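Researcher: Structure for this, please.
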Amino acid sequence: MSLALSPSASMKPPRGKLPLSVITVICCSAFLALLFANTSRSFFKLNSCPRRLVAKKSKDKAAVDNLKSFEMDDRFEFDPEECSVNTGKWVFNKSLKPFYTDSSCPYLDRQVSCVKNGRRDSDYQRWQWLPDDCTLPRFNPEVALKKLRGKRLMFVGDSLQRGQWQSFVCMVEWIIPEDKKSMKRGLFLSVFRAKEYDATIEFYWAPYLIESNTDQPIIGDPKKRILKVDSIEKHSKNWGGVDILVFNTYVWWMSGLTLKTLWGSFGNGAEGYEELDTPVAYKIGLKTWANWVDSNINPNKTRVFFTTMSPTHTRNEDWNNTKGIKCFNETKPVMKKRYWGSGSDKRMMSVVASIVGKMKAPVTILNITQLSEYRIEAHTSVYTENGGKVLTEKEKADPLRHADCIHWCLPGVPDTWNQIFLAYL
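Model: Predicted structure, C-alpha cell format:
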C-alpha cells in the first residue's frame, strides 16, 4: 500500500515521487477496476514489487536450503511507495513475545482480555505477518513516542477502533514511568497522556462517524436505530486541533439489508426517516465525512488515516469447517492464500475507494482487511463480556449464541495493524 508521507517532510512529496493527493486519486481509480475481479488484488497498490529470483529445481538439499535463505534475504526494506503490506502470509514464530499482556497493561477493557477471561491457548499471539516482498519494521515504542512528541493522535470510530487504540497505548505505555503517564476515560472521549513527550493518544467514540440516535446511549435493537447521514458536527467539533486522525467505520452499518436514514433534525422522530440499502446509506454517510475532511483539514498540519473494514468470522462454512461453531475453538489461521470470507463486504470496500479517490485532502489507507481475514482463531470468542459481565461457564458452553467473532483478543491482531500504522506514520 502506497499512501504514506514522511512526517519530517511536512506532507511534501519526496523528490522524484508523485504527490500523495495524486497517488490517492490514481490508486482509488484503479481500485474499482482491479480489486473485485480477484480478491487477491492489493488495495490501493501502485507499484509491483520486485519479483524474487526463480531457481531451477535441484535435488541438492543444501541448494534448496540456500534458496530458501536467499528468498528471505531478497525481501527489501519497507518502503510505502514500493511495497503493499496487505499481500503476504502469517508465519508462526514461537519466540515472538507481545510488548504487553492483558495483565501487565492496566488500560485494556475486560472485553478483549481473553487470557484473563479464561482462554488457555496463546498461540494466537505468536503469528507474525510477513508481506510478500518487503520487511515490515518491528514496532518500536520509543520511535512511536518520538514521532508523537508534542502531538495529538486520535483514533475515531467504533469498538474495533477502540481495540486498536488500546493496543497502541499498551504497546507504548510500558516504557513510560508511572508518574509520567495518565489515562482519563469518558463516554465519548478517552485520553492517554505521555507527559514527558507532551503527547496524547486518544479515542473518540463515533461508530458511524456521522451522527445517530444510538451514539450514546446505545440502542440494542438495530431496527430502532436512525442515522443522521448529513450531520457530523456533533462529533467533528471534537476533532479540531488533532495532529493525526485515524478513522474507521464498518461493522455498525452491517445490521441489515437496509438502514433508517434521516436528513435534518431528529425532531421528526420515526416519521422522518427513509430506508436505504446499506451500501447507499454508507456512501452518503462517508461523503459527509469526506466533505468535512476536505473542508477542515490542513494537510500541512494534520495527517488523516482510514482503517479498512475489520472482518467478522461468524460462518465457519466459509473456511470449510462444517463441524465448527463460528470462530469457537479455532486455533490456527486460514492458510489458503487470498482467502476472503463473507464477513467482509466488497461493496462497502468499493465505497471507501470511490469516496477517498475523489477527496482533495490526502488520506492514507490502512488496509488491514485481507491480512485479518486469515485470523479466524484470534477473536475473543467466548472469552469476553456480555452486558459488562464476563461470560459464565454456562454461557461459554453455548458458543453458537455467545461467541464473539467480531472483536479481537489483545494482545493480538490489532497489534499488527499498529505495526503497519507506525510504518506509514
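Researcher: Any notable elements?
Model: The first strand starts at residue 76 and ends at 77. The chain has a mean pLDDT of 85.
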